[in-house]
Structure formats: structure tokens, C-alpha cells
Design goal:
Layout lengths: L2 H11 L4 H4 L7 H8 L7 E4 L5 H10 L6 E5 L2 H13 L12 E4 L12 E6 L3 H4 L5 H18 E12 L6 H4 L4 E3 L10 E6 L4 E6 L3 H10 L3 E8 L2 E7 L2
Helix pairs in contact: 3-4
Bound molecules: S-adenosylmethionine (SAM).
């Protein structure tokens, strides 16, 4: 399908317009801030950090009370946008107010040791965008990422996960202002969507999740689920390595 490289290319191209095309951004901020405030100097990883704005809000609110802060993404375009954004705010610059480490890497091979982080963020359907040669393999990759994240959390640490809510999938999401569904390739019965972005002419993959699907994969990966909430088009889950 070439979906892996196409999905990466799409994120490279849409890095500058990404936030303006997402009408649900920010719906998870209160949860993130509330769990961060439970820690003294938490070490934080934003996996699939995209444009870096979650990192920016965390730094704005918690900067004197943070440990290591890392953003990892495989899209050079996204990381470039994140770096420019954080530089403008005075971070990640030559004389940083607080240093954020931005790493280009793959969520399937995260370059950190076990038990490195107090909080790991996997937001705005990054988990559902992890693509593979087949939909079945993509499901396997999702489980692998959740298991690897579990291993990277310190005991007591939290995964904050937001994914697209399949119950809220509507015709605008399927073929709307920005995307058109490729029906021949997609499997709507399993919420595996391949859509083409009109502006860039690129096909990309996203899996949408039902609430009843999320809990079993988190349990299989070893987590306890602390809370789950449906918010607008997202499911927001807090899971713990207890
Ligand atoms: C839907 S965006 C979400 C970005 C950000 N977390 C947010 O909430 O705005 C998904 C991000 O995950 C990244 N991504 C997708 N698959 C990845 C992988 N296998 N490894 C690393 N990053 C990945 C994309 O480049 C993109 O920046």
C-alpha cells in the first residue's frame, strides 16, 4: 500500500496547517495538566509530538517543576514546526529558558531505557496513525507501541492517550472539506480509513477506536485504566503502570 511512507509524507506537508484543520485540539489539556501536577519534577515524553503545542502548554504551566521533557516524532516537517514554535517561545534555543529535547524517531523503536518517564503522552490519535503494510499489522503495531510505552513508564507513571472516537465518525470525517475516503482500500467495518488529502494529493491511514476496543488492548499491554471519557470526537484515557 505504501501507506507508511505516504502517511509520513502527509505529516511532513501538513505540519504548518495541521492545527488549523483540527477542530478538537485542546480537549485533553486539563487531563494532562492535572496528572502532571501530581509529580515533583516529572520526566515527560510526548510520543508523536507533532507541532509541539502540547509541549509548549506544559512548559508554560510547569516549567520550573519539570524533569526531562522529550518530544519524539518521525516527521521532519512536524519536528521543524515544533522546533520553530518552541524557539519563538524561548525554549529549545541557544539560551533556553527550559530545554526540550526533540528527537526524530519511530514510535516502534523508542530510544530510551525502561522506567524512564513519569508521564507519556500519546495524543490526538497518534496511536491510530501508526501505519503498517496491512491493517492487521497496524493493529499489532499499536499493541507493540502500548507495550513499549508501558515498559518506558516508571512504576506509578501514567499514559495519557487520546484517540479518534469511532462512535463519532461522520460523513464529514469520511469525505469532507479536507479529505476523501478511498473506499476500495478502507475497511469501514473495522474503522480502518485510508483517505486522500485534497490539497496534497496524498493517501494516509487512520484507525478510529471504539471505547470497547481501547480497554482490552490497554489491559493486554499491562495497564490499569484510571479514567476514560468521551469528549467531542475523542476518547481520552488515562492508564497507569501500577
Ligand atoms: C495526528 S498527529 C498528532 C500530533 C500531536 N500528538 C497532537 O496532538 O497534535 C500524529 C503524529 O504522530 C506522528 N507519527 C505517526 N506515526 C509515527 C511513528 N510510527 N513514529 C513516530 N511518530 C509517528 C506523526 O508524524 C504526527 O506528528
Amino acid at each position: 500500500m505504501g501507506l507508511i511512507s505516504n502517511t509520513t509524507r502527509l505529516f511532513d506537508f501538513c505540519a504548518d496547517t495541521y492545527l488549523s484543520e483540527d477542530h478538537c485540539w485542546g480537549g485533553d489539556l486539563d487531563t494532562i495538566h492535572s496528572y502532571l501536577s501530581q509529580f515533583d519534577k516529572p520526566d515527560v515524553l510526548d510520543l508523536g509530538c507533532g507541532t509541539g503545542w502540547h509541549l509548549a502548554t506544559i512548559l508554560l504551566r510547569f516549567r520550573s517543576r519539570l524533569g526531562t521533557v522529550v518530544g519524539l516524532d518521525y516527521s521532519a516537517g512536524m519536528l521543524n514546526t515544533a522546533s520553530n514554535y518552541l524557539n519563538k517561545l524561548g525554549w529549545n534555543s541557544e539560551k533556553p529558558r527550559y530545554e526540550v529535547t526533540l528527537i526524530r524517531g519511530n514510535a516502534l523503536a523508542i530510544p530510551f531505557r525502561s522506567r524512564s518517564f513519569d508521564i507519556i503522552l500519546l495524543l490526538n490519535n497518534t496511536l491510530g496513525n501508526i501505519s503498517a503494510p496491512t491493517f492487521k499489522e497496524a493493529a499489532g503495531y499499536r499493541l507493540k507501541v502500548l507495550k513499549d510505552v508501558f515498559d518506558l513508564l516508571k512504576p506509578g507513571g501514567y499514559l495519557i492517550l487520546t484517540v479518534y472516537n469511532a462512535d463519532k465518525l461522520d460523513s464529514e470525517d469520511i469525505s469532507g472539506k479536507h479529505f476523501r475516503l478511498d473506499r476500495g482500500i478502507s475497511d469501514l467495518s473495522n474503522f480502518d480509513l485510508v483517505r486522500t488529502h485534497y490539497k496534497y494529493g496524498i493517501q494516509f491511514y487512520s484507525h478510529w477506536f471504539t471505547e470497547s476496543e481501547v480497554a482490552p488492548i490497554l489491559f493486554t499491554a499491562g495497564y490499569s485504566i484510571i479514567e476514560t471519557e468521551q469528549r467531542r470526537k475523542r476518547i481520552v484515557v488515562v492508564a497507569q503502570r501500577s
